[in-house]
Amino acid sequence: xxxxxxxxxxxxxxxxxxxxxxxxxxxxxxxxxxxxxxxxxxxxxxxxxxxxxxxxxxxxxxxxxxxxxxxxxxxxxxxxxxxxxxxxxxxxxxxxxxxxxxxxxxxxxxxxxxxxxxxxxxxxxxxxxxxxxxxxxxxxxxxxxxxxxxxxxxxxxxxxxxxxxxxxxxxxxxxxxxxxxxxxxxxxxxxxxxxxxxxxxxxxxxxxxxxxxxxxxxxxxxx
Length: 223
Ligand SMILES: C[S@@+](CC[C@H](N)C(=O)[O-])C[C@H]1O[C@@H](n2cnc3c(N)ncnc32)[C@H](O)[C@@H]1O
Description:
The chain has helices at about 25-40, 55-65, 80-90, 135-150, 170-185, 190-200; strands at about 45-50, 70, 75, 100, 120-130, 150-160, 160-165, 165-170, 190, 205-210, 215-220. By secondary structure, it is an alpha/beta fold. The strands form three sheets. The chain has a six-stranded mixed beta sheet, sandwiched between helices. Helix 2 links the parallel strand 1 (about 45-50) and strand 2. It is globular. The chain starts with about 25 loop residues before the first helix and ends with a strand. It binds S-adenosylmethionine.
């Protein structure tokens, strides 16, 4: 069964003295996710925002492959923001910006999105393992912001477990879904059809469904 982590650093795993947290799932999924992102990001430049970055490990890893792209990690949890900043300092990559405090339940995301100090005209938005561990309004805010901030050829990449046509794609996902809903009735594995409806409302359409290991998918939305 998939595991859910609301707050890294509270599971007894060692925390580096500088605040860097480690997510076991990162080591299992980052290569497969990069294979999907790479097809679109290779040889492109611009700003990419990661929402719900957690530890900050994905952004640092992806930024190493893409010196022409400026990466903007974000989260709303204070310990995660510290970990993201610590991974950024540790990696010393010029194309990773300090983390933004983005709460996705607000479709405006954060004040920096509309100021000259923040990212603009986004090439992509990346979101991994967030929307099933949050109320539906977080998904609404994710799509609301993506519809507002993505440039004409931009993409929203959404990684995680999903239902298709109202059905789970694996028994392990159904068990995971029940455990999420038991923990919080507002959480749960989302259905691709519901996401497509939300996307259509903000001018986005589903462009690709990429199969990933462990019954996960990466959904790619564009204008
Ligand atoms: C399971 S973790 C995934 C972290 C990271 N994306 C990964 O795949 O390792 C979910 C993340 O979503 C963040 N999150 C939860 N609610 C959020 C919200 N309303 N806005 C932005 N991030 C949120 C949490 O703080 C946490 O870092």
